[in-house]
Amino acid sequence: MKINLSQFAGFCDGVRRAYKMVSALDVAQIPKPIYILGSLVHNPDVIKKVEENGIQKIDYKKFLKSKEGEIGTLIITAHGVGPEIFQMAKKKKIKIIDTTCPKVIKVQRLAQIFSKRNYEIILIGDKGHREVEGINAWGEKKAKIISAEKDFKKLKFSKNKKIAVMSQTTQDVNFFEKAKEFIKNKNSHAEIFSTICLATHDRQEEIKKMAKKNDAIIIIGSKESANSTRLFEIAKEKNPKTYFIENSKQLEKKWFVGVEKVLVSAGASTPSWVIEEVVEKLNKYRSLKN
Length: 290
Ligand code: SF4
What we know:
By secondary structure, the chain is α/β, with parallel strands linked by helices. It is 39% helix and 17% strand. Helix 5 packs parallel to helix 6 and helix 8 runs parallel beside helix 9. The longest helix is centred in the middle third of the chain and has 15 residues, at 102-116.
């Protein structure tokens, strides 16, 4: 069995940057206790490493309820947050370590600028996803969020308002194109910004091209990770022998009986050591016969 490893598998630049920033923290020098808003990366090994460094996870609700002095430092993940978190942290005298990916910041700024210009903002993204919530908050929570084709019908276009369209950085490229076309047909003057990150775009394009050229596909990532889930869905549509795993323990030998070529890809939040373990285990299945 030939193992083809995706050239894009593993941490994207934004996640790598956030992980490096947090790993390099001199925790003795910053106010404690130290919390991280959500998960730095959707991976239990990384979460464990972060916790070993004395950093605990806090959710949005608990952060909102916290009183002054209960949090010393708050780490913002690569997904970013809305401006209210920064305002609240300032009020509660909390030090902020901001690891928001610069590509996410770009979309946040677009939402902010066009909201101030009184545009109608259409955001193509997953409702409830942290990045989408953050971008929407920068746009004063006025964005219409489009997550699926069924949402197209709900779009009402006001004659007096200009329209700006942007997307979650990890959005499905095909869905974004469909949404773009729909909006352009309704309003040819809509200003459309392709804000899907290149890391996401490249991974999706590679899977589309390679899915049928391999007998089986392994996608490594967390079910909580939007970009990993999207990668799995794209691959599964093209190749039914696609499996979504979090780590090597979840690999099943029977999947590879008679398989000549297997493609291994991974979401942007999957650490390299998890990918290496999967490839190592797959190597043991190389000689499986029909
Ligand atoms: S997927 Fe792209 S936008 Fe998202 S964190 Fe990674 S580099 Fe940044």
